[in-house]
Design a protein that fits this description.
51% helix; Cytochrome Bc1 Complex, Chain D, domain 2; 7 helices; mainly alpha; 0% strand
């Protein structure tokens, strides 16, 4: 019951946060294959509830209890290749992240990886040089 309540609060917190990937979406997806607003809409639909509006878990409970990583934390993206991010999205990761292979196309997945790479990082994080 507490886990369900914490999960719900995390999802509600994500919906309430005003800061988002707007600046990254404005830069566009790699190769211009998807419209920036379409990429942000994909992220919002498939990733926001767990990873938050800027790539960070929306609630500490999700990080602690479920191991949801803060994607925008210093070093997280720098330590992972685009291929590994693509694989995690398509195949799922850990116990709680489902595979999105049947929900996102290859191009959509690559666009989300590009959005993560271009996103404005949280305090202390450095954007990856491309």
């Amino acid at each position: 019951m507490k886990t369900t309540r914490l999960w719900f609060l995390g999802v509600a917190a994500a919906a309430a946060v005003a800061v988002s990937f707007d600046s990254a979406a404005a830069q566009g997806a790699p190769g211009g294959k998807a419209a920036p607003t379409a990429v942000k809409a994909l992220y919002d639909k498939h990733c926001l509830a767990c990873h938050g509006p800027r790539g960070g878990a929306p609630a500490p409970a999700l990080q602690k209890q479920m191991g949801v990583p803060t994607l925008s934390a210093a070093g997280f993206l720098e330590g992972r290749s685009d291929d590994s991010l693509f694989a995690a999205i398509q195949r799922g990761a850990g116990k709680f992240m489902p595979p999105f292979a049947g929900k996102l196309t290859k191009e959509e997945t690559l666009a989300i990886v590009g959005l993560l790479r271009n996103a404005t990082p949280e305090a202390g994080a450095k954007p990856r040089d491309r």
